[in-house]
Amino acid sequence: MERLLDGYARGALDPYSHALVEAHLILSPENRDYVRNIEATIGEELEAVPSTRPQRAARDQVLAAIYAGGWYGRPRPPKIDPDLPEPLARLVGAPLSDLKWRFAAPGAREHRVFEGGGISASFIQVKPSRRLPQHTHCGIEATLVIKGAFSDHLGRYRRGDVAVADPSVDHSPIADPDGPCVCFVVAEGPPRLTGPLGRLLQRVFGG
After folding, report:
1. Residues 6 or more apart from 198 whose CB is under 8 A from it?
2. Is residue 195 within 8 Å of 131, Cβ to Cβ?
3. How many Å apart are CA 183 and CA 162, to the nearest integer?
4. 174 strand-pairing partners
5. Domain ranges of the chain
6. Measured distance CA(3)–CA(186) in Å, rounded
7. pLDDT at 62 > cutoff 70
8. From CA 173, how far away is CA 134, in angstroms rounded?
9. What residue range is the signal peptide (predicted)?
10. Which residues contact 73 (CB under 8 A, 6 or more apart)?
């Protein structure tokens, strides 16, 4: 998670990871102080740069807009879905209920926002109490919970939480029983099935 927060504060993330972290900061106070500290360090570094270089906007002003749910320097869009933080709403321009969902796994649907350059960004909706197939990852995968909650062997994640997985994580997340779980996921490469289903596919297709 620190890698994402550092990249966000320094403006080094791809647009979809940036939107994920920004939405996390809106929904949860957990890492706001950490980001402020990084911003303060960057500010000190910028003060040492000759004034001929362009200066970035005031940190406090930018962060205040983020934490208030604003989008600094741009007009606010109409509120389109109470469950969608503004950075994610801007990616799709429609309520979650109007997205074009497709089958992803038994009990799970996906709306793909972007795929290219080695990353993908998607909304994932999982039915209550439904467990996803066991899998690991080709690279880093960041998952922001937008609605509901899910659990795996590493913990339980609720609205505003971010779960970060890498190739060392082999898990089978399960949605809470009291309602569907909706997440926004940015991943480096596709997931790789590792449970019984994955082994079956490997035998069938010789993977």
Report:
1. 133, 134, 135, 192
2. no
3. 9
4. 131, 151
5. 2-83, 96-205
6. 14
7. no
8. 8
9. none
10. 57
CA 28 from centroid of its chain's CA atoms? 13
Identify the helix (H) or strand (E) that includes residue 79.
none
Rounded CA separation 77/88 (Å): 12
Q: Give the integer Cα–Cα distance in Å for 102 and 186.
A: 17
Q: Percentages helix, strand, coil for the chain, rounded to the nearest 5?
A: 30, 30, 40
Task: Kindly report, residue by residue over 177-204, the tens digit of the pLDDT.
Answer: 999 999 999 999 888 999 776 666 555 4
Count Cβ neighbours within 10 Å for each residue of 128-152 and write b for 16 or more, e otherwise.
Answer: eebbbbbbbbeebbbbbbbbbbbbb
- The residues facing 156 across adjacent strands are 151
**Alpha carbon separation from 173 to 58, 150, 168, 196 (Å, rounded):** 40, 6, 15, 15
Kindly indicate whether the domain formed by 96-205 is annotated with CATH number 2.60.120.10.
yes
Is residue 112 pLDDT above 70, yes or no? Answer: yes
Give the single-character DSSP code of 97: G
